[in-house]
Amino acid sequence: MPSFGEPRRREAELMRRRLGLLMLMVAVMASASPTIGSSSYAADTASIVRLAYINPHPSSRPPTGTHVFWERLRELGYIEGRNLVVDARWADDRTDRLPELVADLLTRKPDVLVTWGAPAAIAAKNATISVPIVAVAVTVDASVAASLAQPGGNLTGLSLGWTEIAGKWLELLQEVIPGLSAVALVANPENPLNRTLTKQLEGIAKAHSIKLRVIEASNQQALDRAFERARHEAQAVVILPDSTLNSDARRLVALATKYRLPSMYTGRAIVKAGGLIAYGPDFAAQWRRAAEYVDKIVKGAKPAELPIEEPTKYQLTVNLTAAKALGLTVPETVLVRADEVIR
User: Fold this and answer.
1) CA angle, corner 19, sides to 15 and 23, nearest 5?
2) Do 277 and 256 touch, CB atoms closer than 8 A?
3) Quick check: helix, strand or coil at residue 263?
4) What's the predicted TM-score (pTM) here?
5) Segment 11-35, tens digit of pLDDT
6) How far is it, in rounded angstroms, from Cα 307 to Cα 149?
7) Backbone dihedral region of 137: left (phi > 0), alpha (psi from -120 to 50 degrees) or beta?
8) Which of 21, 129, 143, 300 measures 20 to 30 Å from 109, CA to CA?
9) Domains and their CATH numbers in the chain
10) Integer Cα distance of 336 and 30 in angstroms
């Protein structure tokens, strides 16, 4: 005759088995799911890259070729919203705001800081010695890097090689304008690169028997006065590379047309908008390399060991419609060397 305690013992044994199975399932799930502090969790979060980006322009006027930077990052596997977080700041053509904006970006603890132009690179370099900086259109001097080949510190990037081609601007204008003897050089006195190029071009102009009239303009409003003065002092104008002076292509073209001044620019976008001639680097190629530098740094490369690269190709763009409006005939010797001729 069975005792009344037997069913209870069987029920207790069944409960113990169920509890043991439940504990085993919990252990398996715990081992498969990373917890905060575990190595697998750390590896997962480490795959998210935080990129800071600062530009002196307004967001509505990004530099030529910037889109190639973002396209190349996607090709390399960095997808915003998945494994890439982008914190961007725009100075709206006010370079005095750059230090403040860089400081704000650094509070976001970026893995890499990308800058455009010399003023932004200097602001970033002055603000941090630890966050890697990839500077596009950087001017190499002691304030930002030890040298092109071995920049040292936490900054590397791409130089646009302006000092290598400055003399070409005057040579091309001499070929296009018969009897050229005086050129107005419009420069931003607040831009270190413009100061360097002005000194260089003064020597080159003298060697080419050209009188160089240096006209300073630190903002868009000053450009009107610069062109008006140039009309009385020179036969042509060179607009030096500067993010403020070159930010509005249509305005530059309108001023050159108003004062009937053949003008040399440093970016093909202004010639596409109606300017006469431009000679400068391939901006898209530089932005592409910038994305590849970001990838190298994320994967462990040190900025100090990545050389600051100079362009391998420069572009000559000529607008024959603009030349005709100015009463100029562009010689065949220039046209055959042009990468693009707009008719």
Assistant:
1) 175
2) no
3) strand
4) 0.78
5) 555 555 555 555 544 444 444 433 3
6) 5
7) left
8) 143
9) 46-160+284-305 (3.40.50.2300), 162-282+313-342 (3.40.50.2300)
10) 70
